[in-house]
Write a structure and sequence with these properties.
Length: about 260
Amino acid sequence: MTKQELVSESDLFLLDLDGTVYIGDRPLCGVRETLASLRAMGKRLVFLTNNSSLSESAYREKLARIGLLEAQDGVYTSGMAAAEYLKRQFAGARVFLVGTEALKEEFAAAGIVCDDEAPDVCLLAYDTELTFAKIRKLDLFLRRGLPFLATHPDDVCPTADGSMPDVGSFLAMFERSSRRRPDLIVGKPYTAMGEALLSRYHAERAHVCMAGDRLYTDMLFAKNNGFLSLLVLSGETTREMLAASPIEPDAVVRSLGELL
Ligand SMILES: [Mg+2]
């Protein structure tokens, strides 16, 4: 479809962060103007990230500081989606959360009880405060057969210096030590975060558009959830990678700044 058709079909835009709306602390060229125009057209905007190391409020602060966020916009992380999933599918369960203090606070505010000694279910989030004591404990609970969830599958997280190990790298370690893979991964490209978004924003999947720069997370997330997909070439994906991929986005633009 054309980019004009895609915009007119979409009521809710899910916006990936790194490589799509900003790189590091720098908003990509023309993105502010595009977002302002989309809001003026009555479109709803939700900034969406697999990174579960920071809280919603930390992302709101960053996006507002660099001039990308308006009060009516949403911010959603795989950590928030994991909290929703646990409340629905593991109601009342005690959770062993391998995550940052910021995520633990968010879980407490959501009414989820964390328990490091006798949990019912384990969740591995992007714990940038990971210690050997936490690694050892998660491995023990996994070998005991507790249900095992992870917030997202990304191997690495982009930084100004290249990349740093992310949850997918941690998962490789636990696969070696406990012979377990997660029973469910919440974030992109899977469906638990998609379902959580649809219910939170009362949106119809055919009118939701995922805009992002990665084929195997953002674009596959759109396909797996029945959303429209908009690939931006301002981040990871090149035209060569797109040509070689079986994933075909509904529309492709050089950057979000060139959408309208
Ligand atoms: Mg990205």
